[in-house]
Write a structure and sequence with these properties.
Blueprint: H1 8-16, E1 21-26, E2 29-37, E3 42-46, E4 51-52, H2 55-71, E5 76-79, H3 92-98, E6 102-103, E7 112-117, H4 122-127, H5 131-139, E8 145-150, H6 156-170, H7 177-187, E9 193-200, E10 203-212, E11 216-224, H8 234-248, E12 252-254, H9 269-276, E13 281-284, E14 289-292, H10 295-309, H11 314-337
Parallel strand pairs: 3-5, 11-12
Antiparallel strand pairs: 1-2, 2-3, 2-4, 5-14, 6-14, 7-12, 7-13, 8-9, 9-10, 10-11
Helix pairs in contact: 1-7, 5-8, 6-11
Length: 338
């Protein structure tokens, strides 16, 4: 399984976004890494990588990364290995700790996700979903809902509008508009990103943005109109992008991020229930780990990061208060309308 974050097109996006990118490969391994950090210190970040097929190949990739890190005056290398061949059936944590890695104070990409196998036939894929999802997939057209796809970067504004509405209502943190627009500008023309749009009477009521590697579709961003929530258009949006991925010849859909162990108190608990309703298999990765180049430097970095992480910014507090206030107003309106 390949991941969009370790592809050439994602490297081009990172370069277009001002990052210095390093791409290397050797026997049984490869990686794409970006130079990150600022005033606290610099580091190399390898999202869902390095890619390697054996422990020896992983060690070779890390030796190369450590040299690149030293050449660029980095304090550490941050990795997220996901191939099981790296661990040779052993415990992820033991494998990495034995090699001098430290659990990162910041877990970046999701360590738990839901993967749908597209090598099954369509009936088997649908059968693995909740009956509600199957029924909506087959009958949503009866409610006047239609679906379109777009690879025109300007159409991303449809999704951004719904993301903004949702963030304002709930207070959740979302990617910046310009970041997502740049993703669209680079990935859409390369057939590596597609926008799915749900409409009623020609008007958009929801959208989902997906990324494609050579074998995997990643469900990246989605939001829908609160006004049309009773139509549940978000569900057939996902079933359509799953079936289209199969038709395209991809072998997996990564629903990208679920709560560990179905934790009901986790911030992703609601997303988890939604994503698991589409079937598939829950997968756990090693998570985000750091390999220090300079032990004193890494210790100092971790201490400063921990201090900063404990204090939410004024902007974050304002967004949280705004979300709570709007949620309260929505509840009052709902009661008055009864």
């Amino acid at each position: 399984m390949s991941n969009i974050l370790q592809t050439d097109v994602w490297a081009r996006f990172q370069e277009s976004n001002g990052h210095k990118v390093f791409k290397k490969s050797g026997y049984g391994w490869c990686y794409i890494a970006t130079l990150e950090g600022g005033t606290i210190g610099r580091y190399l970040y390898v999202p869902y990588g390095p890619v390697a097929d054996t422990p020896a190949a992983f060690d070779a990739a890390m030796a190369d990364l450590m040299q690149v890190a030293r050449d660029n005056k980095c304090l550490f290398v941050r990795v997220e290995p996901i191939e099981e061949g790296i661990f040779a059936g052993g415990n992820h944590q033991d494998f990495l700790v034995q090699r001098g890695f430290k659990k990162s104070p910041r877990q970046v990409q999701p360590a738990h996700t839901q993967i749908i196998d597209l090598t099954q036939d369509e009936d088997a894929i649908l059968k693995d979903m909740k009956s509600t999802n199957r029924n909506l997939h087959r009958n949503i057209h009866k409610k006047g809902v239609t679906f379109e796809t777009s690879q025109n970067p300007s159409d991303l504004d449809i999704l951004l509008k719904f993301l903004d509405e949702t963030a304002g209502r709930t207070g959740f943190n979302r990617q910046r508009d310009e970041y997502l627009r740049q993703v669209a500008r680079v990935l859409m023309p390369a057939d590596a990103a597609t926008l799915y749009i749900a409409k009623v009477e020609g008007q958009p009521i929801g959208a989902a943005f997906v990324y494609d590697s050579d074998d995997t579709r990643t469900y990246a961003h989605a939001a829908a109109s609160f006004e049309h929530r009773k139509l549940s258009a978000g569900i057939p949006l996902v079933t359509n992008l799953i079936m289209d991925a199969k038709a395209k010849g991809l072998t997996k859909v990564d629903l990208f991020g679920i709560a560990p162990n179905d934790d009901p108190n986790h911030e992703w608990a609601g997303f988890t229930k939604f994503k698991k309703s589409f079937g598939g298999e829950s997968v756990e990765y090693a998570g985000t780990w750091d390999k220090p180049v300079s032990a004193p430097g890494y210790t100092a970095y971790s201490a400063i990061y921990a201090t900063k992480a404990k204090a939410p910014t004024i902007k974050e507090k304002a967004l949280q208060l705004k979300g709570k206030a709007l949620n309260g107003i929505s509840k009052v309106k709902a009661k008055l309308n009864k």
